[in-house]
Design a protein that fits this description.
By secondary structure, this protein is α+β, with helices and mostly antiparallel strands. It has helices at about 5-15, 65-70, 75-80, 100-110, 165-175, 205-220, 230-240, 255-265, 270-285; strands spanning about 20, 25, 85, 95-100, 115-120, 125-130, 135-140, 140-145, 150, 160-165. It contains nine helices and ten strands. A hairpin with a 4-residue loop joins strand 5 and strand 6 (about 125-130).
């Protein structure tokens, strides 16, 4: 039997919903019917949809403990290409604090209660009993993975799993739960800056390309009115910035950044956190604001 599938079946028997990962720790891409979420998404996603695709589409949302599904022909094709196994922590009632550097591990040892610990490539995974909202970059090199995220399986680890502490919940709550402005009010500021060729005269992209990418990014942030807008702002900033790594510059990225920050603040993210999230996104792509 495929050893990766064999491991997945073993984890499923233990109650961990699993899924295959291809090269680069990426989940299997959606099939043509599910591409761009055209099917509406899995019923267990944030916005429930009708998808009943037999293939492992939709990443973490397809994770399962059902051996019949894991052994089915559509999944077998994915297992043949898989390089690792991932699991859905929230689906198993767990939360993983992903510490991605030695510095993050040092911080956790002083700030969080000890629990089951699994070594990772660059740091450690600390696993707690209890599920919560997921969020990326809650601190430098620290992600919280639980609901609506997957974690790569790295082994059984060592230590005794502790209940999810308030200290971990606070990492997300303090950044993500500020209510939106009352009565739908928007950020009190001057009209949002507009990207122009004058600002980005060193950019190799067309005006249409810039504005289309920006509008799609702003829409992604606006689609997170309850939680996750800060993490989405980070992801959008990182993606947009990555498009400019080969430009001679300047590209007017400060103008794009301000619009991302305003979009996050409009759905309730504290301004300072929104600013940090966008700045980190640009830095992660190796691009800095003009």
């Amino acid at each position: 039997m495929n050893p990766i599938l064999q491991l997945a079946l073993e984890l499923a028997r233990l109650g961990l919903p699993v899924l295959p990962l291809r090269a680069g720790k990426r989940p299997v891409g959606n099939c043509q019917a599910c591409k761009d979420n055209a099917c509406g998404g899995r019923p267990n996603m944030k916005v429930p949809g009708p998808c009943a695709c037999p293939a492992p589409c939709h990443a973490w949302a397809a994770a399962t403990t059902d051996p019949a599904v894991l052994n089915s022909p559509p999944w077998h094709r994915a297992w043949r290409e898989a390089e690792a196994v991932a699991y859905h922590p929230g689906g198993a009632g767990l939360t993983v604090v992903d510490l991605d550097s030695a510095g993050a591990v040092t911080w956790a040892r002083t700030a969080l209660p000890p629990t089951l610990t699994v070594p990772s490539t660059r740091g450690e995974h600390w696993v707690y009993r209890g599920a919560m909202t997921s969020a990326n970059k809650v601190r430098p090199d620290v992600d919280v993975k639980s609901t609506m995220q997957y974690a790569r399986w790295l082994g059984y680890g060592a230590g005794t799993m502790a209940p999810l502490p308030d200290a971990v919940r606070a990492l997300v709550d303090k950044e993500e739960t500020t209510p939106p402005p009352a009565h739908g009010a928007r950020v009190a500021s001057s009209p949002p800056p507009t990207w122009t060729r004058t600002k980005g005269h060193g950019c190799r992209h067309t005006d249409r390309y810039i504005h289309t990418g920006l509008q799609r990014g702003l829409a992604k942030i606006a689609d997170c009115p309850e939680t996750g807008a800060g993490s989405q702002a980070y992801g959008v900033a990182r993606f947009l910035a990555a498009q400019h790594t080969r430009c001679p510059g300047p590209c007017g990225l400060d103008t794009l950044a301000q619009q991302l920050i305003d979009a996050a603040v409009n759905v309730g993210v504290p301004h300072d956190y929104a600013t940090r999230a966008v700045d980190r996104g640009f830095a992660a792509a190796g691009t800095h604001l003009d």
